[in-house]
Amino acid sequence: MERVPILKIGGVLLVSIQIDLQDQSVLALQEDLAEKISSTGAHGVVIDISAVEIVDSFIGRMFATIASISRLFDADTVVVGMRPAVAITLVELGLTLGGVRTALDLERGMKILGQLGRGRDA
Amino acid sequence: MPPRSDGPEQIPIDADDDVVRVRQLVRTYAQQTKLSLVDQTKLVTAASELARNTLIYGGGGFARVEEVSDGRRAGVRASFHDEGPGIPDLTLALADGWSSGSGLGLGLSGARRLVDQFDLDTEVGRGTVVTVTKWKR
Ligand SMILES: Nc1ncnc2c1ncn2[C@@H]1O[C@H](COP(=O)(O)OP(=O)(O)OP(=O)(O)O)[C@@H](O)[C@H]1O
Ligand SMILES: [Mg+2]
């Protein structure tokens, strides 16, 4: 099974998904991230899916799960870079990703996390 | 309809990473048939849902993928076969949000929305075959 690497950039964990995710990799990523957020005290998680060609219900649910886990550690999650074809498909599949924050690209995602982080310290 | 020279392809669904292989195979056919990028994505996503169901509920099986034609247009057909327990209540299984397990219950109903043709053949105690087709526009 391939594992998705997690990078730490300042107080943010960056997860850039570059592989075709099998379900075990999805579960491993959720566990690795929980571990990493708690050990680093990161205040934000960015999941970059610009290289991801399909998001099915299992992968979509991972975004919601990661967002919930990070909230327990007082961190925010932003999913960035969703491809248009993936977005259209997700809507038709019926997955709304209600509680998941999204941004167009990595830069905007980082900006959102910066703003949320400042709000937290104030 | 005469079979194409490159014909149908069949691959097993016995483990997690087979689901990834099914996705890749379906994408290859969808690209070869020149479905639009959105239609490719829809078909591959539907295939991913159905292959996972074959694995989890059907106890494994196989997928079959082929290029088809109705005389006017080309398309891609994928079917998912298992000899598992079958689906006792189809209305329930096809309803949005119903899962016998811990799923979201979007796999079958969502896959149905994502394709042009959806056929479900199931018999309790015998198994399930789900066949989906996406036509080129
Ligand atoms: N191949 C199959 N064999 C037996 N039962 C099946 C099969 N496929 C689906 N089912 C039944 O139909 C139900 C609905 O399937 P569906 O894919 O829509 O939802 P799910 O798999 O439970 O959740 P999700 O796909 O959203 O994670 C399943 O919970 C299962 O009981
Ligand atoms: Mg399912």
Automatic annotation (TrEMBL), chain A:
Domain of life of the native organism: Bacteria
Limits of the STAS domain: 2-113
InterPro entries reported in the protein's UniProt record: Bact_StressResp_Reg (IPR051932), STAS_dom (IPR002645), STAS_dom_sf (IPR036513)
A Pfam short name: STAS
Listed name of the protein: Anti-sigma factor antagonist
Organism this protein belongs to: Lentzea cavernae
UniProtKB/TrEMBL annotation, chain B:
Residues of the Histidine kinase/HSP90-like ATPase domain: 38-137
Protein origin, superkingdom: Bacteria
SUPFAM superfamilies (UniProt xref): ATPase domain of HSP90 chaperone/DNA topoisomerase II/histidine kinase
InterPro entries named among the record's database cross-references: HATPase_C_sf, HATPase_dom
Coiled-coil intervals: none
Protein name: Anti-sigma regulatory factor
Annotated organism of origin: Lentzea cavernae
Lineage: Bacteria, Bacillati, Actinomycetota, Actinomycetes, Pseudonocardiales
